[in-house]
Design brief:
CATH architecture of the largest domain: Up-down Bundle
Strand order of the largest sheet: 6-7-8-3-9-10
CATH topology of the largest domain: ABC transporter transmembrane region fold
Largest sheet: 6 strands, mixed
CATH superfamily of the largest domain: ABC transporter type 1, transmembrane domain
Shape: elongated
Number of helices: 21
Strand content: 5-15%
Number of strands: 10
Length: 589
Amino acid sequence: MKRLLALTPYLTRRPLWLVLGLVCLVLTSLLVAYIPRVVGLAVDVFEASRETASIDMGRLWRVVGGLMALALVAGVFRFGMRKLLIDLSRLAERDFRDDLFRHLLGLSPSFYDRWMTGDVVTRLSADMDAVRMVLGPGLMYLVQTAITVPTVLVLMMTIDAPLTLVSLVPLIFVPLVTWAFANEMYHRSRAMQDQMSTLSTMVQETLSGQRVVKSFNQEGAQQTRFEAINEEYVHRGLRFASIFSAFFPMLHAVFALGLLITVWVGGGRLISGAIGYGDLTSIFLWIFVLYWPLISLGWVMSLLQRGSASMERIQELLAERPDVADGPATRPAEEIGPLRGGIEFRGLTFAYPGAGPPALCGIDLAVPAGRTLGIVGLTGSGKSTLASTVARLYPVPDGQVLIDGHDINTIPLRHLRSHIGFVSQETFLFSESIEDNIRFGQPEGTRSEVEMAAELSQLDDQIRSFPDQWETMLGERGINLSGGQRQRAAIARATILDPAILILDDCLSAVDTDTEERILRGLRGVMSERTTLIIAHRISTVMHADEIIVLEGGRITERGCHAELVALDGLYADLHRRQQLEAELERVD
């Protein structure tokens, strides 16, 4: 339960709402608790008529009027209580979800390498809903119970203390029953929510990979897998429901026992003349007033246990810390000034967090500002890794990567990345219009800037052929574009930033060689004004670079211009010959 105390700041952000809501709650509880006493006074009027053989209508109407006034005022305060506290819980949920999403945006790529998307989404949605139920109905009914029960007990004691004490003996079992069920409810709720994360992850992956599923004819296998996971979720849900269902009958039994004792003992005291009909009626009604708080206590307990389990899962996300962040050594952006784009690697040795051997070993390389570096190598040689260190997507050792002479770890992340246009080999487009996707990194970009960027990437003609042109909405991950169109949209998205450093990570692999040449021709003017890293498998993509390096096993094994590397007759020359042969065979065919 201590985990839920972390939510206190979200409730106290609007103290006036909270105070007014609690005031309405207190007044509602007090007024409802006093209504049985007024009903008892009405019964006393009728009991008195037995002796006088007439009903005191004036007194009766005063009691009835008081009862109606109490009910009306209690209804007004009940509305205020629910309106203020439930609205407050919704706003607190919004603030908490905003903070959690902001935290997720600040985490490093290594976090998303380890966590499943479906699991994270479930914690941001279903678990957040469970927490909101604690902030709203859970808190409201818990406080209401804490006020109603002692108030009713005091009123009952003023009428008949012995009868009150006897009728409340069964209530001693309420905290015992609650304690006995609470721990098991928590564990079963946590197990159910964990399985929901597994289910969400499986659904998200299957729907995102529908083309793969259909290509391999695995619809039946995926359906079977889903049914197994769903069956386990239902099983865990039924286990939680079984203990939750048992909780309420136990509370009903306690209430029924208390009512039975009250009828038995109260009837005896009525016959003996110790109390009157009105007093006994009031005590009976107070027992019923206690009924809802006791029953709601079971519901609130289930909310608290589910909320506590959900809060634990959310706090597991909040406990994650980015392994790349601004630190004590970070200098102000104003002190560093605009970056020109000069890159230097000084003996860079890099390993991914939690991975085995280093992905890069002893990289010594300088790329002057405005120069173009081509990076070639076999799959797994470290090409993309080298590019990711420039954008500082993963932790980089101090003093081994420098931008304009500044240690990359001393440059504020936002300042560094605002000077980098990164086109990764895994192209991702959002479910927005083509125009919005291109100016994703520069929302204030004009239409003319968008069109110029699309023209550089050789995408403008195809966009104009679409019925909605720039307003064409893309499906998930840009599914309604071809692979080459997605890559060109990503290139346009990077160039519109006018970055000091442009990184093209094998982003032309899905276009044909003619389109590649047109794109490179359009980019050469842009590349001449900024530092460019081009990673490619095709030699034709990098052959015009100012310098080319060949990576093997995370080390630089060859370096020079295109002609020098061909003359060296190493891996680069071998790749060049093979690709020339492939191109010749394609022309013959």
